[in-house]
Amino acid sequence: YLESVTEGPLVGRHVVISAGGTREPLDPVRYLGNRSSGKQGYALAASAARRGARVTLVSSASLPVPGGVELVPIETALDLQREMNARAGDADVIVMAAAVADFRPAEVGATKIKKKFGAGDPEAPTVELVRNPDILAGLVEARGEARRPYIVGFAAETGDADGDVLHHASAKLERKKCDLLVANEVGAGVTFGQDSSTVHLLRPGREPVTVGPADKNVISDTVWDAVQEELL
Ligand code: CTP
Ligand code: CA
Asked: Is ipTM > 0.90 here?
């Protein structure tokens, strides 16, 4: 257990990390979710704590919380947005490692949806979705011209007919306007829930750096090495 780390490159820094998936309720017993395990975000939190940072981890994942890390539990994308926005002003670094649901059910049933609704009802209900806010884009916009907090985004990409992983990741960095984009290579059975992955670190105006395949702890240390270079 890390009581408190008083030496290290991140002493005196507050880092706020989101991790894992979000759960978007349909009714009191059901939700729409995704396969994100939270492992990469938790590894980043542990690594930052070992380097002396004060670490706040905003997550719905049910993994053991690393020593010295404060957990803020959330469920939905809207919860996550509220908790991240509330802490952005005090953060030196924000890492959006969470897999945020792009959509949520338009309506949440107050009572359990029943299989049979009534005579003449359709065989199965249709779930209408609405867009969730882009939390990362909101954090970048709210920062404006300031240099603090340093903002890190994550992306899970596959190559396709439009281009390879790096092509899609570069486009996403330009869209998101964060300071560093960590792009995971994903495919069938790759990355989600695994202990290792291959990532590309992309920064505006710099050549991409590829790490891996490597353990998520190794990737975390490489990410913090890169972030530390940029901190004022
Ligand atoms: N993100 C976010 N809010 C959302 C969706 C994503 O803050 N509503 C963040 C993620 O935490 C991640 C980054 O944006 O750091 C990229 O997420 P990704 O899903 O790859 O990007 P999208 O813009 O949602 O694009 P798409 O899913 O269409 O590839
Ligand atoms: Ca998305």
From this structure: yes
Alpha carbon of 97 to ligand 1 centroid (Å):
9
CA gyration radius, the chain: 19
Annotated binding site: 102, 112, 133-136, 154, 172, 176
- How far apart CA 25 and CA 161 sit, in angstroms, is 34
C-beta 171 within 6 A of ligand 1: no
The catalytic site residues sit at 34
Cα(111)–Cα(19) distance, rounded to whole angstroms?
29
Count the alpha carbons within 13 Å of 69 in the hemisphere toward its beta carbon: 28
Alpha-carbon gap, residue 98 to 155, rounded angstroms: 10
pLDDT tens across 89-115, in order?
999 999 999 999 999 999 999 999 988
